[in-house]
Queue: 4 jobs
Job 1
Amino acid sequence: MPEDEQKRSYEELEREVARYRAAYEVMRALGGTLDLDELLDLIITRITEVMEADRSSLFLIDWESEELWSKVAQGVRFMEIRFPMDLGLAGAVATSGEILNIPDAYNDQRFNQDFDRQTGYRTKSVLCVPMTNKEGERIGVIQVLNKKSDDAFDDEDEELLSALAGQAAVAVENSRLYEDQKKSFISFVETLSTAMDARDPITAGHSSRVTLYSLAIGEVLGYSEKQLEVLNAAALLHDIGKIGVPEVILFKDGQLNDEEYKIIQTHALHSLNILEKIHFVRGQKDIPMMSATHHERLDGSGYPLGLIGDDIPEAGRVIAVSDIFDAITSRRHYRDRMEFIKVLRILDEESRKNQIQPEFVSAFKNLSLDRIVKILEEDNTELVPGEDMELFAAVTLGEFQQLIENEEGDLSADERDLVERFKCAYDRCHDGSRTDGN
Ligand SMILES: [Fe+2]
């Protein structure tokens, strides 16, 4: 073999090895995430590189509506696009299951020029392959556009993209399975929690409000999505143990005696015992302890276990702040909401007395007033004027506390106005349900 020919074939071989190594990397990376958006994005980015294409798209088939949909057409990332399954080259592949390798899209009648027209892109070569799952069902289509080096994609490209599409299909199916499991888990948790809340009309909505406050604190603390998911479940289930408390005591109208109070307190241990019987997946195993420790106090004076400081799971300490806030801001049939300034002073006092975590109280006070109003009213804020909500959005709870602590002092007219508007929203003066003397 002449030397230059030998060199060429060696270079080709090297290129091939590099491509297959890159393809192997793609396959490995696909196992790294179960988040569907992230996964689709990853598939597209990596496949574009490996296929030496200019851009790629992945369309999933919605067999029910007979549509193709995508969230990650590059350039318009994370926008959902939907179109009928029989449209364009991707549609043709989705319908037939055959690979399409077109050197010049504009010479093919099936090519839908709308996307190019809308985006100003100019498609030339297209390689489009079906994604088939392990059961042999078509679940989507991967399309790569405009091969960079040559005019068209070749047989090897077809082979490589088909192999990658097969791996992508497995990864997408796993991710969907995981999403489904997650959904069914959270709907199970929500159902339990709603059933619990519905049992006691006096504290109706308590678990869901405590959950919303806790998640808001978690966001301020910079929790990841996973941490928020776990916190969500732990907070929704925190009072599940009340199932084990007799109704005569739970719903007693008036002061509880010592013995009754002790029985009420058993709900935290009941929460632990009940939740420990549920099989939680990896990463969620601490939920029973997180839920059951919402009455623990930093100095060890809480219950059920009398844990001290960091021995109390962090989520338990976050839920404790939310639980106290909701208990004193919710209405009972025998009393209205506690005056707001007193509520904030109680949180400060509890934090000063080493009962609840000062950092979490600070995080809570970082929330904007509109967020607090929305949770207090469980999103039924139609009666609060929109302009009031806009004003509330610009002020944090901590800033507002400074204003009301200083109410007798020199507030500007705007500040005084804000205080009045919030008081009105808090006391529900708009719906006429405000009781005299509050
Ligand atoms: Fe509780």
Note: The first helix runs from residue 3 to 30.
Job 2
Amino acid sequence: MINPPTKLKRKAQRVHSILLRTYGEPRWTRLDGVSELVATILSQNTNDNNRDLAYSRLRARFPTWEAVRDADPQAVIEAIRPAGLANQKGPRIQAALRHITNSHGQLSLDFLADLPLEEGRAWLTSIHGVGLKTASIVLLFCYGKPAFPVDTHVHRVTGRLGLRDAQLNADQTHYWMEALCQSGWHGPLHLNLIRLGREVCQSRTPQCAHCPLRRLCDHAKHHTP
Ligand code: SF4
């Protein structure tokens, strides 16, 4: 059981409050679990625009997820080509759709709503090609579970801020951030940290002088004159 120190929980609360004041309460498009799973597989190693284009093409080409599942693999690969790595993602998506159908007799992930977080996560990550980040996105945004997805932005920003031990890798940071957050923060804080990472705390040149979190940030304390 992870139990971060109270001091760090308070810091996380301040980070969350400042980001809410700065960016507001983020909104997101709610998809059903299967659609979110497919969209998240498409988003691996690409940007949002390419993912959205590939997703739209897939939806336009096939009327249902059952049709995607049973399609000629080459037709799926062709539809999702804008997302990149289409030769991997196409078969991965079809295998995931078959896995869900074979396990539950229908193409739906709604059974996850009734499972505790850990069980749902174990079930999703048992699908080939579904890692912690993808599983956490589905569980958080489709089923309201207190998961905390960690992408490259969240991992970098939480490390610089000092919200986690510098040694934690991205997978370990999922569990750490879950423990650090209070109920209801997970979605907003995840999305606001991504926004900060894209707009201000970029990988190569963080703009600490313009960052709303600079007074709290360990990196800024050590690197800003
Ligand atoms: S102060 Fe600098 S390093 Fe810290 S979160 Fe902001 S931009 Fe990133």
Note: The mean pLDDT is 96.
Job 3
Amino acid sequence: MPTLESPLSAEAVREGALDAIWQSSLPTDHEIRRGRRRLHAKATVIAMVLAAAYWTLVIADSALWLRLVAAVALVAGLLATATGVMHDGNHGSFSRFRWLNRVAGSTGDLLGASSWLWRFKHNHLHHGNTNVEGMDSDIEQQPFARLAPGQQWRPWHRWQRFYLWPLYGFFGMKNMFFGDVRNLRNRQIGPVALPNEPSRGVSTRLLLGKAAHISWALALPLLFNPWQHVLLFYFVCSWVVGFSLAVLFQLAHCVDLAGFTDADAPRRGSHFTSHQMLTTVDIASPVPALGHAFRWLAGGLDHQLEHHLAPRLPHTVYPAVARRFHARCAEAGFTAKMHTGLWAALRSHYRWISEMGRPPVRTLVLDRRGLS
Ligand SMILES: [Zn+2]
């Protein structure tokens, strides 16, 4: 009996094959348990680094050079907390216990960002609608930046390839002092309304989190140090942490290797795995030692694609999952996108914000849809 397959069914077969490859790449229970143990050990090391750096920088009567070393260690510890404890906790991947995930997630409040708002903004808006214009809050930075083809172009975007880099460092401080309170008061993040009315407890926890951040980051240091030094160190450390986090997330999605979906398209595209492979790019580590250091600081987000496909896995299992997934995709003719290194990722982001900074009539709109 002759069988004629329509293009749609061929695509469905291809999507099914891709899903099967992903399922076969997932970690075993043993790998997940071992990954969690490594994650908890890492969190312990981070806590010790933070305690030693804070004591040396803020409380002890240390020499200036030692304080500078401590400031670098403090920034590294804060960054690793955000990417490797807060991020995992708020995804529910730090532990199998919900309360422990909430404890890990609440380190975000200590860092100055409401963990309650983060879960909606990051888990639902960003993960659920990666690079979907009008839904993914990570690509909504108007009027400062035009990050996607469908967004309004303004004359100053011509220079965004220069001014966005220093601006990234202020995004964290903006949320700490204005953004979170404004979002809670307006009951929305960007154009999207919050899923439910924030209770009084949510507002209280948000304000307590801000107070806790100000206590350890500004008030306590002021008891031991001149106010000019405290403000200078607070500003510089906050800027570096904010810059590193913003750039880290941009390199996975806001690059010329990634695709974007307009607001009229179905959420996540028609097929979840394909949509994440379209919109999310990994970063290779050509120099293993540097790759390990980068991965430690980045909370495994050099493997953003695997994170987006399975955000509830501890980030310590992503390298093994990514090795299997990339190899099997290559065998079957699928492309799992990957920057060849950190420098290549930075250049790709630069090219994308340069392209988006040009007036739309000259913007090259590439069709990156479909599987390649
Ligand atoms: Zn995430």
Note: Confidence is low (pLDDT under 50) at residues 367-372.
Job 4
Amino acid sequence: MDVHDRKTRSKNMRAIRSKSTKLETSVKKVLETLSLKMVEHPKNIPGNPDYFVSSLNIAIFCHGCFWHAHECSLFKLPETQREFWAKKLRENTVRDLKAIRLLSFSEIRVLIIWECAIKGKEKLPAPLLPVLLSTWINGKYQIGIINSKGLANYNAPDEVICQTTKLLNTLR
Ligand SMILES: [Zn+2]
């Protein structure tokens, strides 16, 4: 049995959400290094992205692999209250899809950065996040994804634009 009742649990979840995650902090640092002015969680932009850079019209989401149900080694459905969690996480992913669609209609470019890019056994080597981020920013892809495999095009996720191994060779 889960010790938290529904009310406490959602209170806890809100508390967790209001703190910046490690991924958010890392991404913020990169944006600052690139001298990009950003707004955090702008209310007027669909999906309240973690960062919005108005000069480039780009929205960046830093997705926790659990909260956004990423198919990766960091995700595992909790053993207890499985139905609750399955429903909750499904709602989150539906909300994410809706946000991406609304942003695309507004011609805002979107980048989704997954937690597993910087955490877990498959994480990217540390110097790669800034490289991948600026590659996407300067590139032409409307919607990009950064995960533990590198940078990919959202509409063709198997097509990795910037492969980690290749990049590592150029950095050496
Ligand atoms: Zn992940």
Note: The helical segments are 6-18, 22-33, 82-105, 128-138, 164-171.
